[in-house]
């Protein structure tokens, strides 16, 4: 019997824990105590659905980490012994600590999200929001249709560019965007008419992909929250808490 896959809402809540925890302290220990256990927990709980991040996403993450680290290293807080100083660039013990904390925070924020991003279904999330009255039905449907049309609009852009080149016209960004916008508006009008005819405006419509949270989903949410709280208490107990608010 196939195991029940994790609910998309549970994956979103679990991957959002670092953002809710790291906002309280800027010390370099919090990302380590939070990120490593959380990544291991998510990998163990969702091993049947997670996929390795793509090379593009890892490259973007590495670039973001590198830029944040270099900026914090050269222009961060100056405290402790000065190691290098030239013009506005000032490297000190304090800037090294700030740079390390910035890079670790980005990694602990991004890696859990990248780990479960491929297993999250936008349809399931919006269906849950509509059934639980978090979003009105019309807003949920409009958002879902907009997400589904992103690849179609991208294809329209390419076809518009090719058509204008075939006609010998200049493919400026403005003309391509304007033509694609007109096509998108016409398609939206046709889709709204079809949706109205098929009864999508009814308030009591059924969402076929909706399913309630199961035991595994609640375990995933609870375990992630416990890891976040444990990291906060550990940092406070060790006396390395560096408040980000005061």
Automatic annotation (TrEMBL):
The lineage of its organism: unclassified sequences, metagenomes, ecological metagenomes. Keywords: Membrane, Transmembrane, Transmembrane helix. The chain crosses the membrane at residues 7-26, 32-51, 58-76, 96-122, 218-240. One of its GO terms (cellular component) is plasma membrane. It is a multi-pass membrane protein. It is found in: Membrane. This is Unannotated protein. Signal peptide: none annotated.
């Amino acid at each position: 019997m196939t195991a029940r896959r994790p609910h998309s809402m549970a994956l979103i809540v679990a991957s959002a824990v670092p953002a809710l925890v790291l906002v309280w302290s800027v010390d370099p220990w919090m990302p380590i105590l939070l990120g490593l256990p959380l990544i291991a927990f998510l990998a163990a709980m969702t091993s049947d659905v997670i996929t390795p991040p793509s090379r593009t996403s890892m490259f973007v993450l590495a670039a973001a980490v590198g830029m944040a680290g270099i900026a914090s290293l050269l222009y961060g807080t100056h405290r402790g012994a000065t190691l290098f100083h030239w013009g506005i660039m000032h490297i000190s013990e304090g800037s090294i600590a700030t740079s390390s904390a910035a890079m670790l925070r980005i990694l602990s924020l991004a890696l859990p999200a990248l780990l479960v991003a491929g297993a999250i279904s936008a349809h399931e999330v919006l269906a849950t929001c509509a059934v639980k009255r978090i979003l009105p039905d019309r807003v949920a449907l409009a958002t879902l249709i907009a997400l589904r049309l992103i690849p179609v609009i991208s294809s329209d852009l390419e076809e518009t560019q090719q058509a204008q080149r075939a006609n010998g016209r200049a493919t400026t960004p403005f003309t391509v965007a304007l033509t694609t916008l007109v096509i998108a508006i016409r398609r939206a009008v046709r889709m709204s008419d079809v949706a109205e005819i098929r009864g999508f405006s009814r308030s009591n419509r059924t969402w076929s992909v909706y399913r309630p949270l199961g035991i595994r989903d609640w375990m995933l949410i609870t375990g992630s929250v416990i890891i976040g709280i444990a990291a906060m208490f550990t940092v406070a107990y060790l006396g390395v808490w560096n408040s980000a608010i005061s």
